[in-house]
Amino acid sequence: MLYSLKQIARTNANCPMSKRATEKFVTAPLVRLPLLLLYVCLALPLPLLSPPSLRLMLSLGFLLGAILILGLVSEQVIISEKAIAVSYPPWLQWLPLRQNWTLPWEQVTALVPVATSQKGTVYYIKAKKLQNYLLPQRLERFELFLTLVHEYSGIDTNNISRLTPPWTYQLLAALSLLMLLGEGVVAVAIYQGWIVSPVSSLG
Q: Within the chain, how many helices (H) and strands (E) appear?
């Protein structure tokens, strides 16, 4: 039997241990912010430098893309004594790759490691019904998350680490800020007439 997020949040609601029995985890800010910064510095120049006839369409595309990226980095995990549940914002649930799921602990049988093309390792939660669920690895308080998974499932999590080392996101954030700074300098130069916009030169 599967449990909804609201049911999990109410687990042992009348019990003094209920606050300790339920924990909510979200995507770590160190992961979320650099990815959003990267999207902005890559996509924002498109509507700003586009011909007037395309500016509205590209601006709408930029906003839709920002909403999509925000949804992808807004993963939420709720762990209780009964189950683990993963959810995404409602506007993202139509994507087949980002579906909400809930799995009771008694259905968990193993954690299966799978190597990635970036030389990392992702883990899938193997269920009794021959279903596999991707284990979240970009969460804040990741050590506590792994501890709870071990306590409730009985599966060893000592060898599991974050999908990507924190320094890679710090480097990504620094490079994204440098790109934004460079784009800002170019924008000021175009506005002051020091350089000619590519769109103007085409006209």
A: 8, 7
Tell me which amino acid residue 135 is: L
Q: 44-96, pLDDT tens digit by residue?
A: 999 988 888 899 999 999 999 999 899 889 999 999 999 999 998 887 777 77
Write the burial class of residue 59 (CB in 10 Å: 0-12 exposed, 13-18 middle, 19+ buried).
Answer: middle
For 34, the 3-state DSSP assignment is helix
Using CA atoms, how far apart are residues 146 and 162, in angstroms rounded to an integer?
10
Longest CA–CA separation in the chain, Å: 71
Q: What is the DSSP letter of 44?
A: T
d(CA 138, CA 140): 7
Q: How far apart are CA 142 and CA 136, in angstroms?
A: 9
Burial (0-12, 13-18, 19+ Cβ within 10 Å), 122: middle
**Own/partner long-range contacts of 12-15 (Cβ < 8 Å, ≥24 apart):** 12/80, 12/81
Residue pair 127/109 in contact by the 8 Å Cβ criterion: yes
Residue position matching structure tokens 């009794």: 128
Q: What is the model's pTM?
A: 0.78
pLDDT of residue 199: 61
